Amino acid sequence: MCGRYASSANPDDLASYFTVEEPPEEVLPASYNVAPTDPVYVVMERHEKRQLRVVRWGLVPSWAKDAKGGARFINARRETVAEKPAFRAAYSRRRCLVPADGYYEWQVQGPHKQPWFLAARDRSPLAMAGLYEVWKAPDETLLWTCTILTTDAPDELGQIHDRTPLLVPKNDWARWLDPSVEDPGPDLLVPGTPGFLDAWPVSKAVGNVKNNGPELVEPQAVEDAPLF
What we know:
By secondary structure, the chain is mainly β. The protein has helices spanning 11-17, 88-93, 155-158, 173-177, and strands at 5-7, 31-34, 39-46, 49-57, 75-77, 95-100, 102-109, 112-120, 126-136, 142-152, 163-167, 190-191, 197-201.
């Protein structure tokens, strides 16, 4: 799964990297411990323009009676996303990219869990596959939310956790974001793999959402840690 990630790039750099035509009105501070229900940047295409927009992490389906359940939908399984009522409409029309410096996974080590940070080998932003929704409150205000797609982790990543976020290769961004494409195809998304991602153990302080600083992504020595 993907339950925490880091996002420290400023919106101008993200807009340039993702060739965004409309930058966000809201500027978010750098975060090294993005958690469910936090505001996050996503890249989407609307009205034939690529936008960088701030939304809330935790998808609220358009038909939901209230917005309280959004934290339950921070991830959508690739295997069932096209059929699940909470995600199928968004999958066919409202796909997005969720930029990240990298993401955290927790590896079970006996009675403890060791957090790891996974990032692109060249340290470029990751383009995690996401979906977004627009929920209308009773007072007519709109709530924009998102979720991140996950899949089974490759064998090497499975040493850390059995699920991993899906990434969209740069050459496929346009097809993934195109709202006129109802199903971009099962082979479009890829799990992060060794050779593209680096992984290293980090401080357990990341487990507390109150902790947030660049020190959270610094490597920590862990005895007998798997390497790839």
